[in-house]
């Protein structure tokens, strides 16, 4: 791209207020039946994950365990596979983990942030 078309190098552009660590985040392809709802966008900002559905006018900020659950659900696409990934990272009982994960997924689905097909919670 020619320098005159780049925002960083175009003459007359004040670059002193620009963040130097901005990055492009690509939405991953769904891995299973549980997936972000079609209009949902999400990405990491600092130590948090922002999840937004512009059509439903919903935006939430997730941190810590909630962010880990979100990313594991998106990456694995099923409760079973997500539990396997989270169980390796957190020392919590399987019953507690399943209950917390299912509740989390249901709450996201209620707010049109996560698509959870019928029968996804064995």
Strand line-up in the sheet with most strands: 2-3-4
In the predicted model, the low-confidence regions spanning at least 5 consecutive residues are none
Major sheet summary line: 3 strands, antiparallel
Provide a count of the helices.
3
Q: Strand percentage, roughly?
A: 15-25%
User: Using only CA atoms, what is the Rg?
Assistant: 18 Å
Q: What's the pLDDT, averaged over the residues?
A: 85
The strand count comes to: 5
Report the principal-axis shape: globular
Distance between the termini: 51 Å
Q: N-to-C SSE series?
A: EEEEHHHE
Q: In terms of structural class, how would the helical and strand content be classed? A: alpha+beta
Q: Which percent bin holds the helix content?
A: 25-40%
Structural summary, described in words:
- With 122 residues, the chain is of the alpha+beta class.
- 34% of the residues lie in helices and 17% in strands.
- The strands form two sheets. A three-stranded antiparallel beta sheet has the order 2-3-4, with helices on one face.
- α1 (64-76) crosses α2 (79-89) and α2 packs across α3 (94-110).
- It is globular.
């Amino acid at each position: 791209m020619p320098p005159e078309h780049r925002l960083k190098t175009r003459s007359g552009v004040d670059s002193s207020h620009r963040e130097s660590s901005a990055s492009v985040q690509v939405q991953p392809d769904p891995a299973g039946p549980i997936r972000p709802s079609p209009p949902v966008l999400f990405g990491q900002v600092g130590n948090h994950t922002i999840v937004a559905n512009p059509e439903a006018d919903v935006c939430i900020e997730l941190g810590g365990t909630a962010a880990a659950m979100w990313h594991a659900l998106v990456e694995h696409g099923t409760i079973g596979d997500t539990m396997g990934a989270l169980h390796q990272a957190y020392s919590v009982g399987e019953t507690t983990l399943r209950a917390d994960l299912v509740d989390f997924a249901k709450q996201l689905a209620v707010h049109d942030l996560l698509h959870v097909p019928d029968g996804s919670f064995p």
